[in-house]
Amino acid sequence: MIYVLTIAGSDSCGGAGIQADIKTIHRLGAHALTAVTAVTAQSSVGVTDIYPVPASFLSKQVDVLVTDVFPQAVKLGMLCSVDAVREVVRLITRHGLLNVVMDPVIRASTGQRLLEGEEALTSLREELLPLVRVVTPNLDEASILTGRKVRTLEEAIAAARDLHAAGPDVVVTGGHLPEQCTDVLCDDSGLVAFEGDRLDTPCSHGTGCVFSSALATFVAQGHSVRDAVGRARAVVRKALREGYPCGKGRGVVNPLGGMDPDVHEPGAGSKNTGRA
Question: 43 and 112 in contact (C-beta within 8 Å)?
Fold first, then answer.
């Protein structure tokens, strides 16, 4: 059995966060281990309140798990506080955690801040980012991490190069690009653009969580990062097509919909765009 540990916050509406991670990991044939960083009170229309799990208890969750079941990959989601970010840095180092995929959750899709304060952001950028294998920011997160506007494909490519300089492979996801949905991967071999038609749907809550947890699962199963990105894209696009309304706000993606996770989505291609 392949084990993937997700360290993330709980979404009480069930569309994103650790709930989406669990559904995705299990759908792809692995077993999800979990460490909860925060509990949220939220609905489809927004986050009302956040209760951070104390960093000492976050640490205890992981310490207990890895003495019994060691994960082949780790997905990081909402970390919430500077204490949690620094605790995750210590956990990765202390236990030698491998194949860490970080979804740098900074703001909710409805606008609420999910990573508190500039100190937490600095710690995430300077202490945690160099330790992970892959980081998967969307355009807004790439803007915050690089400190400059990222709204076009050219700006996404530049951001991917800048973030890769810190160490990890970088996938800047392009779901908010104005035309085609193009994800940009920057790794040691250069740049690859994964292209696909835009899927216009009101049911998109949870896409970042599904993508990063699928990517972590495929890497845990032995796929290269480049192959894992293509497969994770297919999972997300299928989950978007299978999405459904949930509450008064945006609907949710459905990673449990019928699909063959071993097949790349028809029409979704990739191309090399140059050296890093």
Answer: no
3-274 belongs to CATH 3.40.30.10: no
- What would the two tokens of residue 101 be? 């995929």
Nearest CA among 46, 60, 103, 98 for reference residue 250: 46
Structure tokens at 168: 């990890």
Our measurement of the distance from residue 106's CA atom to the centroid of its chain's CA atoms, rounded to an integer in Å, reads 11
Cβ neighbours of residue 244 under 8 Å, at least 6 residues apart? 203, 251, 252, 254
| In the block, residue with structure tokens 């998967």 | 136
Q: How far apart are CA 244 and CA 254, in angstroms?
A: 7
Ramachandran class of 20: left when φ > 0, alpha when ψ lies in -120 to 50, beta otherwise: alpha
* Statement: residue 254 has pLDDT above 60: yes
Q: Which two tokens stand for residue 82?
A: 């500077």
Name the band, by pLDDT with cuts 50, 70 and 90, for residue 267: very low
CA distance 35 to 252: 23
Sheet of strand 269-274, all strands in order from the earlier edge strand to the far edge? 46-52, 31-43, 3-10, 73-76, 100-102, 134-135, 169-172, 181-187, 190-196, 269-274
User: What is the tens place of the pLDDT at every residue in 35-80?
Assistant: 999 999 999 888 999 999 999 999 999 999 999 999 999 999 999 9
Confidence (pTM):
0.93
- Alpha helices (runs of H) in 114-256, residue ranges in sequence order: 117-123, 139-146, 153-164, 207-220, 225-241
Work out the widest C-alpha separation in the chain, in whole angstroms.
Answer: 47
